[in-house]
Amino acid sequence: MTISIGDTLPGATMLVMGEAGPQGVDLAEKMNGRKVVIFGLPGAYTGVCSTAHVPSFIRSMDALKAKGVDEVICVSVNDPFVMSAWAKDTGAADAGLTMLGDADGAWTAAIGMDFTAPPAGLIGRSKRYSLVAENGVVTVLNLEESPGVCELSAGETLVDQI
Q1: Which residues are designated catalytic?
Q2: Which residues form the Thioredoxin domain (predicted)?
Q3: Labelling 7: which of 34, 87, 109, 138 has CA 20 to 30 A away?
Q4: 7-160 CATH, one of 3.30.70.3270, 2.60.120.560, 3.30.390.50, 3.40.30.10
């Protein structure tokens, strides 16, 4: 079942690269008492993800912060090593985006955003979406009909909706 506006997002332990290697991040703690933007995408270093989706949130960071967003989080079904390198290569790290790896895809599946496209080599990946969660409750949700498109889920669209 896909999440909807009004649903409470489940907690999960995501992965980031820490000083000593991969470390867990409690997603529920990140959402507790805060307004966060979460955007999901099919994969690090993939075409539209690198050329459109992440850049749209880099461009929108100041406007989102001005609208009361405490943190912008990118979730992808990738390992923390790849997410860390991608954050540096795209400028997401410098812009202040939090890049979290849902390494086994469990959270992505739990919110109904998983898909598989074997011809593209994408197995158990994330659909392209963006959402706003206030204290863990979804208040805005934008789901693209195709993972190869980034319009509804772009940072600029979300700014206009908040």
Answers
A1: 49
A2: 3-162
A3: 87
A4: 3.40.30.10
